[in-house]
Amino acid sequence: MQELFPTHPVPFYRGPVELAFGIQPVMVEGNTARAAMCLGPWALREDGSGVHQGATGVLVDDVTAYAVLTARGDDQWGVSSQISVDFHSPIRADMRQIVCTAQVDHVAGDWGFSSGRVVADSGELIATIGQRVKFFPSDESPHRTAGLPADATTWLTSLDSHLELIRQDGTHREFLLRADPGMRNVLGTLHGGVSLAFSELAARRAAESSGGSSPEKFLPASIRMSYLRPGIVDGNPRITAEVIHRSRTVATVETHILNPDGKAATHGVVTLHKVQGA
């Protein structure tokens, strides 16, 4: 039986990130949060064969965070500390909507944890997920308004167009993240779900390009993200991807998003499996 915690309201905020990634209003009931996202051409891989699995990053971050925030203390808000995603099915190009649900599992002191699932509108399980949130003192919710209208203009036309390879050396890849002000969260820093999305994309590109004469196609099996300090959107952050291991069937890639001053904002570990039949 799920443990029940005292609940606080978490009003939905539609920022430029939610608009760009097709996030529908996050609905909260008790300690459970739920939302859907609409997919589009912006989420497709370059060859059009499927959707970037990391495109779910904003949905996963928002829903798991909202769930934890329902159990925050008085005069508290929270920030992402860790996000985990385990993928079970690829997101196909013909999928139009996916749904995420999460619930609070534990709250103690300044920390909270939630877990949940991402499913296709057909009910197919896409991923199991979790987030650890660090609470901090705050007089009021940063979600002071509903944010942008649903028909506002989006900044995102293609995930691929925002990531440029600038250095390649053996197992090491370095990418320029072409930042946009619309990548900010309500606190003004790089949205954790955006960080996850582009870390996954960088890891997959690194894994696929490091095979030499064996250019296998890979899909992420799991993503583990740690948020070390606020991500700075001003300027162009860099993403490094180091291929720790690569065989014909499995690859493990370590990623960092580096702020303009060179300090790491995130640390990620992405495990990828060969695409069946590729």
TrEMBL record:
<protein>
    <submittedName>
        <fullName>Thioesterase superfamily protein</fullName>
    </submittedName>
</protein>
<dbReference type="GO" id="GO:0047617">
    <property type="term" value="F:fatty acyl-CoA hydrolase activity"/>
</dbReference>
<dbReference type="Pfam" id="PF03061">
    <property type="entry name" value="4HBT"/>
</dbReference>
<keyword id="KW-0378">Hydrolase</keyword>
<dbReference type="InterPro" id="IPR029069">
    <property type="entry name" value="HotDog_dom_sf"/>
</dbReference>
<dbReference type="InterPro" id="IPR039298">
    <property type="entry name" value="ACOT13"/>
</dbReference>
<dbReference type="InterPro" id="IPR006683">
    <property type="entry name" value="Thioestr_dom"/>
</dbReference>
<comment type="similarity">
    <text>Belongs to the thioesterase PaaI family.</text>
</comment>
<feature type="domain" description="Acyl-CoA thioesterase-like C-terminal">
    <location>
        <begin position="40"/>
        <end position="131"/>
    </location>
</feature>
<feature type="domain" description="Thioesterase">
    <location>
        <begin position="188"/>
        <end position="263"/>
    </location>
</feature>
<dbReference type="Pfam" id="PF20789">
    <property type="entry name" value="4HBT_3C"/>
</dbReference>
<dbReference type="InterPro" id="IPR049450">
    <property type="entry name" value="ACOT8-like_C"/>
</dbReference>
